[in-house]
Amino acid sequence: MFEAILLGIGAGLISSFLTGPVFFAMIKTSIEKGFKAGFSLAIGVIVSDVILIAIVLFGTQFFEYKAEFDKYVGIIGGVFLLAVGIYYLVSKLTVNYKNRLEKINKRGYLIKGFLMCILTPSTLMFWIIVSGIISVKLNNKLDEKLLCLFIAMATQLSIDGGKCYFSSKLRYKIKEGALKKLNKIAGVIIILFAIWLIVKTYLKFY
């Protein structure tokens, strides 16, 4: 049970920083339109993630877990994370600091967050990989997997809410250059984690 909670917190942390376009869209929206707009977008992302997780969980119930799955999860997951990290390093970012609009269409931002997440293939791939890792670590126990994923969603929403709040309050202090640096730092961290995952898997199975 304790391991499920730790895995959930870890998955939520990674998820909240991993999806590049969505991650920076929340910060940009909060700076440009305010906290309510940014947080509405964050809720849309969570709704999308819950649907994708349900699809992944439902699908994996038809497959019998085997120990050799560890090898494929480690290699495929490492390569995927490596690609995401490289994307972070080469992607560009711009922010509009002009005055915000008075009226915010929260439903519109929620739908925008939902569509940005659910129409991004990398998001589904991420949850497939996470589900695989969780299944391996928790011996495919459904109750612990559900607890783990619930903790992941709660962690992700808390972090995203914090990002939106502070981005809104500190909008003029958050410079475009600082966000670009954060983008690259996140890329380096993800790349290092990807390399660690690939090396660990290689040493275990090859």
Keywords:
206 residues; 8 helices; globular
Short description:
The protein is an all-alpha fold. It has eight helices and no strands.
Question: What can you see in these coordinates?
Answer:
The protein has one domain (2-93, 104-205). It contains 8 helices and no strands. The protein has 206 residues and is an all-alpha fold.
Total number of helices: 8
Number of strands: 0
Query: Class by helix and strand content?
Result: mainly alpha
How would you spell out the order of helices and strands? HHHHHHHH
* Multimerization state: single chain
Layout of SSEs?
Blueprint: H1 2-18, H2 20-33, H3 35-60, H4 69-90, H5 106-118, H6 121-137, H7 142-169, H8 176-205
Helix pairs in contact: 1-6, 1-7, 2-3, 2-7, 3-5, 3-6, 3-7, 4-6, 4-8
